[in-house]
């Protein structure tokens, strides 16, 4: 049997109890799992501090000195702490214990030289260290340890039950002495050579017991690469399998509807990016494989018309399509926009949302089932069991990040073989991230805005400048423009320091009085019918100002609206700010985005404001966002958590990811099934990993 498969409790120093803890707390079941527990960081124990060198930096330091005095201090309520005075030749400090006081008091030797290690904090002029690690200088000199001490991930429970970092360290040493010879190389020689990687065996030794910084760096690179490389192999393989095995409806005809629209009813010339993307999609649709494509395009880049044209292809081939949007407002807008675009074509389009009346629903259900309904546009309501299609051939999903995985996959059950899927998103996902998260998805990008758009001018203003801003708004309104003012909250927050929507609405009503100005309001707690009504009034130009919460974040399209004021802008994330800004700049006029904030801003908030002012490029913004927040936040826990990375970091290790991607593509091109003898070990590991953790299916 493979020794690495040995249950963890058999390791010397573990036993049943600790084994149980490791399983429950760290998901470590076997020897092999422990080896793959990589340190979070390393402590440099080559350096010794003097007490007069200490600064209040909350960092861990190592000091040589003596305990000269020890006393118990009563803290009341039956509690006490143990305080020792610790000296070196430059000064004195305190060591403090709250737990295990009896044991410390009995075993601590006064006036004997110790090496202490731990975090220092400063109270007044006195530094202290709570629960220091202590070692007699004599022992310290002879102790076998590497200069870079690993710090392993842990949990409170592990620590409380005595499985400290030191203990895990010992387990690791024991493990290595038993298994050291067993680690065989997992990567093919060609890649090892190309990237000058160190062997797996050396990498594992040096990740746990680094001899020096340089070897540690090499070990990290090697293991990160390996991790990302196997993920890429999985994703790419999955994609290849889908293309070969999952049959799709062959949309071979580009027929009457598409051609008529393309030749006679296009309201504008398509951008080159739109044309390119259409071509990519048409190739997929005609390929006999199921399409699973992500269409990325910044706000206003013109994804809707692309979606419509795909749906026309479906119709030409005798299939129905659906378009699902995350909100009712957006579904309505798509419905209106698409109906308008297609008004001269003979196709049947309807909308289904939560507020569709029963009588209307009946008609829709019937027409979907008998096939007379060509395009259904709607919200989650489309997913209800009652909605059955005669032959759903294409599902378009707008703003994918709002839908959960299960929700999307529900569309699957609505036809015998999976329909083609086009997921549209205006949240630009940096390519590197998209590659690792959606590696099994094909990606199209509309990277060009329709011509004639003037870049939106963005400014950042403090609340103290409100009067100047209001004056500007009045000037714009006088020119016939319309304005959005967006608030982060619907009701007053407990902490009173944020502008509340209703407060704002009242004060705006005062500052922009009737009959000269008229104001709409829109928020999540309104009834759908009222929302639509308000939206309609604004869209028709009956009101000048739309005061709203983020319900208008996605998709809303009112070309005459040219100013977006975002209140308490510091409370919004970058992608949200960018989405909101995308509501303006849709017409021919110069548009503006005004970010209003408090004077006091955190560093992150400042970066967000500066980024917004500096650029309109959604991808650049997404990169900054990624740096500020990390991929987990951006993609939602579920999505990034699925990758469950042990050592690599999607943000910091993007360069490695790129290399891994490139080499994985190359390898699979040459040897798609990894059958070459030099790939034997690779395949073995690949199959093992695939069995263990299946990479999240984008739509499965
Ligand atoms: P988004 O990609 O944000 O969904 P839309 O599809 O709503 O963008 O398009 C934004 C606006 O740009 C719409 O008013 C649409 O009619 C217009 N538009 C789209 N493509 C073009 C084009 N090629 N030329 C001019 N205007 C276009
Ligand atoms: Mg859109």
UniProtKB/TrEMBL annotation:
It comes from Flavobacterium terrigena. One of its GO terms (molecular function) is 3'-5' DNA helicase activity. Pfam families: DEAD, Helicase_C, RecG_dom3_C, RecG_wedge. This is ATP-dependent DNA helicase RecG. Residues 284-446 form the Helicase ATP-binding domain. NCBIfam families: PRK10917.1-3 (NF008165), PRK10917.2-2 (NF008168), recG (TIGR00643). The keyword Nucleotidyltransferase does not apply. Keywords: ATP-binding, DNA damage, DNA recombination, DNA repair, DNA-binding, Helicase, Hydrolase, Isomerase, Nucleotide-binding. CDD domains: DEXHc_RecG, RecG_wedge_OBF. Residues 472-632 form the Helicase C-terminal domain. It is an enzyme of class 5 (isomerase). Plays a critical role in recombination and DNA repair. Helps process Holliday junction intermediates to mature products by catalyzing branch migration. Has replication fork regression activity, unwinds stalled or blocked replication forks to make a HJ that can be resolved. Has a DNA unwinding activity characteristic of a DNA helicase with 3'-5' polarity.
């Amino acid at each position: 049997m493979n020794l690495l498969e040995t249950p963890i409790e058999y390791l010397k120093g573990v036993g049943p109890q600790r084994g149980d803890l490791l399983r429950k707390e760290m998901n470590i079941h076997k020897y092999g799992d422990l080896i793959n527990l990589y340190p979070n960081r390393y402590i440099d124990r080559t350096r010794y501090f003097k007490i007069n060198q200490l600064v209040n930096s909350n960092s861990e330091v190592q000091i040589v000195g003596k305990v000269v005095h020890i006393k118990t201090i009563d803290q009341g309520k039956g509690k006490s702490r143990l305080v020792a005075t610790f000296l070196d030749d430059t000064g004195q400090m305190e060591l403090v214990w709250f737990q295990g006081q009896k044991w410390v008091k009995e075993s601590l030797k006064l006036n004997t030289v110790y090496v202490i290690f731990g975090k220092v904090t400063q109270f007044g002029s006195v530094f202290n260290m709570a629960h220091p690690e202590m070692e007699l200088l004599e022992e310290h000199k002879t102790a076998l340890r590497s200069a870079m001490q690993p710090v392993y991930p842990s949990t409170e429970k592990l620590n409380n039950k005595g499985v400290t970092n030191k203990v895990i360290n010992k387990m690791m040493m024991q493990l290595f002495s038993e298994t050291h010879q067993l680690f065989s190389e997992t990567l093919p020689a060609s890649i090892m050579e190309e990237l000058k990687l160190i062997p797996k065996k050396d990498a594992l030794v040096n990740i746990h017991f680094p001899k020096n910084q340089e070897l540690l760096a090499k070990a990290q690179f090697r293991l990160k690469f390996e991790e990302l490389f196997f993920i890429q192999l999985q994703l790419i393989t999955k994609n290849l399998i889908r293309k070969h095995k999952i049959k799709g409806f062959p949309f071979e005809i580009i027929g009457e509807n598409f051609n008529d629209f393309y030749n006679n009813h296009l309201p504008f010339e398509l951008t080159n990016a739109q044309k390119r993307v259409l071509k990519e999609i048409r190739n997929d649709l005609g390929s006999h494989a199921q399409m699973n494509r992500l269409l990325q395009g910044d706000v206003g880049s013109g994804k809707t018309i692309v979606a419509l044209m795909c749906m026309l292809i479906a119709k030409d081939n005798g299939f129905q399509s659906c378009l699902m949007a995350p909100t009712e407002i957006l579904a309505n807008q798509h419905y209106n926009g698409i109906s308008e675009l297609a008004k001269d074509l003979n196709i049947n389009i309807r909308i289904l949302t939560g507020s569709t009346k029963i009588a209307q629903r009946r008609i829709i259900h019937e027409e979907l089932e008998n096939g007379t309904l060509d395009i259904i546009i709607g919200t989650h309501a489309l997913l209800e069991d009652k909605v059955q299609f005669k032959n759903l051939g294409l599902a378009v999903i707008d703003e994918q990040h709002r839908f959960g995985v299960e929700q999307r996959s529900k569309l699957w059950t609505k036809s015998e073989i999976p329909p083609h899927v086009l997921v549209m998103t205006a949240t630009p996902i940096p390519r590197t991230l998209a590659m690792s998260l959606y590696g099994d998805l094909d990606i199209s990008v509309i990277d060009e805005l329709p011509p004639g758009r003037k870049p939106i001018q963005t400014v950042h203003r403090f609340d103290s400048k409100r009067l100047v801003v209001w004056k500007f708004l009045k000037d714009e309104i006088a020119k016939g423009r319309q304005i959005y003012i967006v608030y982060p909250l619907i009701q007053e927050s407990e902490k009173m320091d944020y502008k509340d929507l209703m407060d704002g609405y009242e004060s705006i009503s005062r500052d922009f009085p009737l009959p000269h100005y008229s104001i709409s309001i829109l928020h999540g707690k309104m009834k759908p019918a009222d929302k639509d009504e308000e939206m309609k009034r604004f869209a028709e130009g009956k009101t000048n100002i739309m005061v709203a919460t983020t319900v208008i974040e996605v998709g809303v399209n009112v070309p005459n609206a040219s100013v977006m004021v975002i209140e308490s802008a510091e409370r919004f994330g970058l992608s949200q700010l960018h989405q909101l800004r995308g509501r303006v700049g849709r017409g021919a006029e110069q548009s503006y985005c005004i970010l209003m904030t408090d004077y006091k801003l955190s560093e992150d908030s400042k970066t967000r404001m500066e980024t917004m002012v500096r650029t309109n490029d959604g991808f650049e913004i997404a990169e900054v966002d990624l740096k500020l927040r990390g991929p987990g936040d951006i993609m939602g826990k579920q999505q990034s958590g699925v990758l469950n990375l042990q050592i690599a970091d999607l943000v910091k290790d993007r360069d490695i990811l790129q290399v891994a991607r490139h080499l994985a593509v190359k390898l699979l091109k040459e040897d798609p099934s990894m059958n070459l003898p030099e790939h034997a070990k690779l395949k073995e590991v690949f199959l093992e990993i695939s069995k263990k953790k299946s990479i999240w299916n984008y739509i499965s």
